[in-house]
Amino acid sequence: MTRRTVMTVLTIILAVHCAGAALRAEDFKGENDLLRKIEPEERLTYFGLRYSLNNYEKRHYLSTPTRKERDEWLERYWAMNDPTPATRENERRIEQDLRVRIARSKFGMKKAPGWDKRGECLIRWGWPGIRSSFPANIGFYRMLPPGEMWYYYRLDMTILFHDFNLNGIHIFAIEPQVMSARETLDKMRAVAEYSKLMPVEETQFNQGSALMALKNFNPDNINYIASPDVRAQLATTTFENVVRQDQLRKSKNNFFKYLEEKPTIYSFEMDEDLLPIAFDVTSFSGGDGKIRTEVNFEVPTRELRFERRDGILRAEVGLSVLVRDIDMKEIAAASEFTGASQEGGQIFEGPAYIPGQVAVTLEPGYYRIGIEIRDLKSGRMGVYRTNVELPPLHEGLALSDILFASTITQVDETVRYQKGNLQVVPHPLHAYRIPYPLIFYFEIYGLDTDSEDMALYSVEYRVVPVTKKKKGLTLKDIPTAVESRFEMSGFGPSQPQRLEIATDNLWEGSFRLIVTVMDRRTRESVEKIANFSILE
To answer: Is the Cα torsion angle 103, 108, 114, 119 positive or negative in sign?
Structure first.
């Protein structure tokens, strides 16, 4: 094999290895044209973030006309992807910026994106658990350039890199596939166009030599050992090698799996020990056209750490809420602390759930709410997001949300969870056990009143099963499980309502509560719907 033939074969192999990466450089048509229109500093930001963006987001960002608008786009993007949306610190953005800086420092190169494929993997998945290098290996039938192997323990993922040009710039070591000289030439032209290299002439290639080089034929795999005794001695070692090779093959395949399904993973996403909670959002009139928005929590006590101090078992929980508008601008924030305590004993024997509530006052509109709960003893936390639309409650007849409660009691002093002269302890789990009653609270606004400020109205409720009732071996369809209607009166256009519904006629499963209020003076009506569950 002549020197020219060797160089030609190496060039072909290099083209095949890097063609896939080069062809992926432009993820959508016109991306490179749009990139040329933004400043170099913005390009660096974009290159670091592009692994997390889909094609729609990439096109939308690059098509945004001005630098100011692109900066605003990035702020909205980071706010929407904040792993702790109830705090002002964005751990995802911090980790992303750190990864990009390390990629530029450790694996930098002058060409776009500014780092090699090792830098790309670092930005995508962070540092590997194992990083090892291997030297070049040149044999009669195969030439292997030097490179690195990365292994991620928690992902069971192996990534191989090769330094083909021996200049420190590593590319993915993808196994070469047999292709025609014409296909190889087309891929090399794509590589040349992307990297601004001189195009390669078609006369440089010989189809036969290209196919032989890419076939990866290795006669050392032939079983030339004639003695059965020798083969028997090698059986165990051979089996172990096969198992190890199968595991290595699986971990290599995981690279393609994660590249498709999880193109980026951050350290906080690997934390599986999240604190579970039940929560809901209820809205009531806050006066002057505003909405009192309550985020209600229930924390399972079995998930909390109790510590003994002065002979008392205590658990403490911090609750935080951050509200943003549709443009991801911060509107309001609030927090509170709650907990549970018990004298004596080694195990907490109080309620199974600790309730909590954080309230903010908002204008009617559409909001994104970030919720964070933290066990102050163990440090465990849970992070949640929800979107709410708050309609105006001062424009005619209206109902507040239905607030499911664990208890509702009359009080003569100021207490937590107070509604007028009632203490309504929220129950966002919405689960009730037979035979205990279903308890809930709501408020009516905009009732018409007479000259003596008297309002007349009726309340109707229906409980409709979502889950069919089991009767023997069949399921029975019951359109309405419980319903009732009664007439009420009171002073003023706003009226509070507390109701209890017996669960004796219900069964285990999911139900829908429909509450309808009619103003008996105007005949106008309004309705609210909420879901709950019944447990045996």
So the answer is: negative
Query: What pLDDT is recorded for position 46?
Result: 93
Alpha helices in 341-403 (DSSP H): none
92, 264 Cβ separation under 8 angstroms: no
Which DSSP state fits 376?
Answer: T
3-state percent breakdown (helix, strand, coil) of the chain, nearest 5? 30, 35, 35
Same domain, 431 and 442: yes
Q: Which token pair is 26?
A: 């432009």
The number of distinct structural domains making up the chain is 3
SS3 category, 226: coil
Q: How many CB atoms lie within 10 A of CB 343?
A: 8
Instruction: Take residue 2 and report the two structure tokens written for it.
Output: 């002549």
480 phi, psi to nearest 5 deg: -140, 125
Q: Which of 174-183, 228-237, 272-281 has the highest mean pLDDT?
A: 272-281
pLDDT band at residue 262 under the 50/70/90 scheme: confident
Can you tell me the mean pLDDT for 36-40?
88
**How large is the average pLDDT for residues 10-38?**
60
Are residues 386 and 407 both part of a single domain? no
For residue 190, the one-letter residue type is A
Q: How far is CA 331 from CA 130, 325, 328, 401, 523, in A?
A: 44, 7, 9, 21, 38
| Distant-in-sequence, close-in-space partners of 264: CB < 8 Å, separation ≥ 6 | 51, 52, 123, 124, 125
**pLDDT bracket for residue 348 (50, 70, 90):** confident
The answer to whether the beta carbons of residues 85 and 371 sit under 8 Å apart is: yes
Ranges of beta strands (E only) in 170-289 are 171-172, 278-287
DSSP state of 219: G
Domain boundary among 393, 409, 426: 393
Q: Which CA distances in Å does 337 have to 184, 209, 281, 317, 372?
A: 65, 74, 18, 6, 12
Give the residues across from 407 on adjacent strands.
425
Per the listing, tokens 């579970």 go with 276
Question: 287 phi and psi, to 5 degrees?
Answer: 80, 150
**Which pLDDT score, from 0 to 100, does residue 220 have?**
37
Please check whether residues 288 and 249 belong to one and the same domain.
Answer: no
Q: Which of 157-166, 234-243, 331-340, 361-370 is least confident? A: 234-243
- Of 288, 285, 280, nearest to 496 by C-alpha is 285
Find out whether 313 and 345 touch, Cβ atoms under 8 Å: yes
Q: Assign residue 472 the CATH number of its domain.
A: 2.60.40.10
| Mean pLDDT, range 306-335, rounded to an integer | 92
Cβ(184)–Cβ(205) under 8 Å? yes
Q: Which domain holds residue 39?
A: 3-261
